[in-house]
Amino acid sequence: MWVAGIDAFRSAPWTGLGFSGFKEFLHHRIEAGLTHPDLETIGFKHLHCEIITTAAKLGLLGLLALATLWVGGVGWFLAGAKENESNGMIFRVMGLITFTAMITYSLTDSMFGMTLHAMVYTLFLGISAGGLRHAEINPESRSDTV
Q1: How far from chain centre, in Å, is Cα 51?
Q2: 8, 56 in Cβ contact below 8 A?
Q3: How far apart are CA 118 and CA 39, in angstroms?
Q4: With 0-12 CB in 10 A as exposed, 13-18 as middle and 19+ as buried, what is 127?
Q5: Contact present, 91 and 132 (Cβ < 8 Å)
Q6: Rounded to an integer, what is the distance from CA 17 to the centroid of its chain?
Q7: Assessment of whether the complete model's pTM goes beyond 0.70
Q8: Which residue among 60, 97, 99, 116 is least crowded, i.e. fewest CB within 10 A of its CB?
Q9: Cα 128 to the chain's mean position, in Å?
Q10: pLDDT tens figures, 56-96
């Protein structure tokens, strides 16, 4: 799986092959005997690595967007943590744990390629970001005592 994804990335590094282009690329690899036919038969829509899947389908531009999401998200939850404000800290930690789990999980599966994973990720990020934002604009509330 990963070899096919890396080869796809090499063939179109800037923009990737796109979603349908990657499916066609994979079909040609299977016909040439370079990839196991079960990969197409089972119908995987991702390569069990978010980074390789993004590189193959969306190229460097997609990787840049993915890195921006991860680095920007982690940075947003870390911002203000040095100020020793306990108010909202639980939401910062929750957000950081969510990003850490997502990034780690993305090394062996797809976070965005499966609806359930994306929904759970979005739910936890929404709770974390909403709680943190509430704590920032209402400093008198004690959100760290949840």
Answers
A1: 8
A2: yes
A3: 23
A4: middle
A5: yes
A6: 19
A7: yes
A8: 116
A9: 17
A10: 999 999 999 999 999 999 999 988 777 656 678 889 999 99
